[in-house]
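Structure first, sequence second, as always.
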């Protein structure tokens, strides 16, 4: 019998959102409120996005739970009690499930639906969607809410598939508990993920071997439980908390000190560093002098202060030196926040291998082979990061006008007007969060902007919106100009795309600050969606 292909029925919706994480859930809420037949296709088995996938021990917010909460519903703010100032993954996942149920979103989410392709049909101004298991849908508006850190990056180390023990990437952590008792565990990577994970499992494993390529400036998180009195204070001051976040550069509760480092005496500077160091959360980064992000000498002084803090906590001076970053400025890479990270290296059952000195040559059936040794493991953990911001989208087959592939358009670096739409891909909005911003704060800004835009189109009889290529080019020039002089751009990291072999080097975030981004989005909307073509 000849092979026949049975075509599955096509779901028709007004708007299809990719991803049921923080931004996708809010986008769904906004569009349903507008009266649209909107639906989320979610690759995972539950809501939460980042907080569904990254279930490794120790995963938690690095920004204050209260500042990461949705602000759109007073009732939600009233009903939800965060138990910790920096809440852990299980609670964060519960929160997003609570939101999905409270606002009736779950029936409009299709789980286990990973998008394989999205092809724009020019004759009907519709997007044709297909999932990896053959589900099909057709939509007027396609909205990517895939997040910034969802495409896992596995290193291309020879033999990676040959390992006979258990192995996984941190963002594909097993749902069932991993039994570490007595096990020999190897972990590759020392970014923000590994820094949360290592102290959690160090006391549970038989032996933990950490393979480090680059040390980071890890800062103490200083997490604590929220006591009942503080809970009441928080609930009474949500308006001020969100107002404060709206004013700060990255929409966190901390903002750079406007003074310049060398305006203060050395004694006053040191006292200031100690003061921010004693505070919880990102105060040690976003609360420092503003010129640490642009002035090499200012940065180096603070970096040396932080190096001193590392040395104080690690018993063996040789290990302390290995853990001390000297190859990049403070804050030019994402600062990992930690709890007992450095103390883990004082344990007898934890060893640190410098991968720069002893390169990983291969993964063997029994472990990891470096230039000078063979290590045997029961478990190998890849804490090797993500193909950030663009990776999830370029891995899908997304084709716009004239069949142009998004991956081809972005081969020389991503470009999207206001970070929201890329020319040639009509009615396709990207609400991933390519703005250097507290994720939820900007997810709300962008979610409301997109629903406002679709509402405007409906009111004015338009059914198609596309970014003007000139407006997009001007925006890209503006965004690139903003990064000039920033210490980010001289450092290799996922911010610059350089962690992915072959990826074009470019600062992947909008660096003008969240308030400027919000103002620009509002201005464009107020001017009839200036820079977009509506038809
Ligand atoms: P990451 O910061 O990109 O770190 C990946 C690590 O793997 C780095 O240490 C990297 O070394 C190493 N690595 C990659 N390939 C390697 C290879 N072939 N051999 C040896 N080492 C290799 O990834 P991440 O730790 O998953 O963090 C990514 C981002 O997720 C963070 O920056 C943060 O924004 C976010 N995150 C957020 C939270 C939170 O908010 N609570 C928690 C965790 C993570 P090199 O540095 O030398 O490249």
């Amino acid at each position: 019998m000849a092979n026949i292909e049975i075509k599955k029925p096509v779901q028709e919706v007004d708007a299809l959102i990719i991803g049921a994480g923080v931004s996708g859930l809010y986008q769904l809420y906004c569009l349903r409120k507008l009266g649209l037949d909107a639906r989320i296709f979610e690759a995972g088995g539950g809501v939460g996005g980042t907080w569904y996938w990254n279930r490794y021990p120790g995963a938690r917010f690095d920004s204050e739970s209260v500042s990461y909460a949705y602000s759109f519903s007073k009732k939600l703010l009233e009903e939800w009690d965060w138990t910790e100032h920096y809440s852990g993954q299980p609670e964060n996942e519960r929160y997003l499930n609570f939101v999905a149920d409270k606002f009736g979103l779950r029936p409009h989410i299709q789980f286990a639906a990973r998008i394989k392709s999205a092809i724009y049909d020019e004759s009907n101004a519709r997007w044709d969607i297909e999932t990896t298991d053959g589900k099909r849908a057709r939509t007027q508006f396609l909205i990517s809410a895939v997040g910034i850190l969802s495409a896992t990056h596995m290193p291309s180390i020879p033999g990676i598939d040959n390992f006979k023990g258990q192995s996984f990437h941190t963002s594909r952590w097993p749902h069932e508990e991993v039994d570490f008792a007595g096990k020999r565990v190897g972990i590759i990577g020392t970014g923000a993920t590994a820094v949360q994970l290592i102290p959690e499992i160090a006391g549970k494993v038989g032996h933990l071997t950490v393979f480090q390529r680059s040390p980071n400036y890890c800062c103490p998180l200083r997490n604590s439980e929220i006591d009942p009195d503080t809970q009441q204070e928080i609930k009474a001051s949500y308006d001020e908390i969100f107002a404060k976040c709206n004013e700060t550069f990255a929409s966190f509760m901390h903002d750079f000190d406007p003074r310049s480092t060398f305006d203060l005496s050395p004694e006053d500077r040191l006292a200031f560093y100690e003061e921010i160091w004693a505070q919880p959360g990102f105060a040690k980064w976003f609360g420092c002098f503003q010129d640490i992000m642009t002035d090499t000498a200012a940065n180096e002084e603070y970096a040396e202060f932080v190096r001193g803090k590392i040395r104080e906590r690690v018993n063996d001076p040789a290990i302390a030196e290995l853990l001390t970053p000297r190859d990049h400025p403070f804050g030019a890479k994402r600062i990992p926040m930690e709890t007992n990270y450095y103390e883990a290296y004082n344990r007898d059952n934890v060893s640190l291998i410098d991968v720069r000195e002893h390169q990983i040559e291969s993964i063997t059936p029994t472990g990891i082979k470096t230039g000078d040794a063979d290590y045997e493991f029961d478990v190998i953990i890849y804490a090797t990061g993500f193909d950030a911001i663009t990776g999830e989208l370029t891995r899908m087959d997304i084709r716009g006008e004239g069949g142009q592939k998004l991956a081809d358009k972005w081969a020389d670096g991503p470009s999207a007007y206001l970070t929201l739409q890329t020319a040639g891909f009509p009615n396709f909005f990207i609400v991933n969060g390519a703005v250097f911003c507290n994720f939820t704060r900007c997810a709300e800004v962008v979610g409301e902007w997109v629903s406002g835009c679709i509402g405007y189109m409906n009111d004015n009889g338009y059914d198609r919106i596309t970014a003007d290529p000139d407006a997009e080019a001007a925006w890209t020039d503006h965004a690139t100009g903003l990064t000039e002089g920033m210490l980010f751009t001289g450092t290799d990291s996922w911010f610059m795309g350089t962690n992915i072999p072959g990826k074009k080097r470019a600062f992947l975030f909008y660096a003008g600050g969240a308030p400027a981004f919000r103002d620009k989005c509002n201005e464009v909307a107020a001017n009839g969606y200036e820079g977009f073509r509506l038809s």
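Margin note: The chain is about 30% helix and 15% strand.
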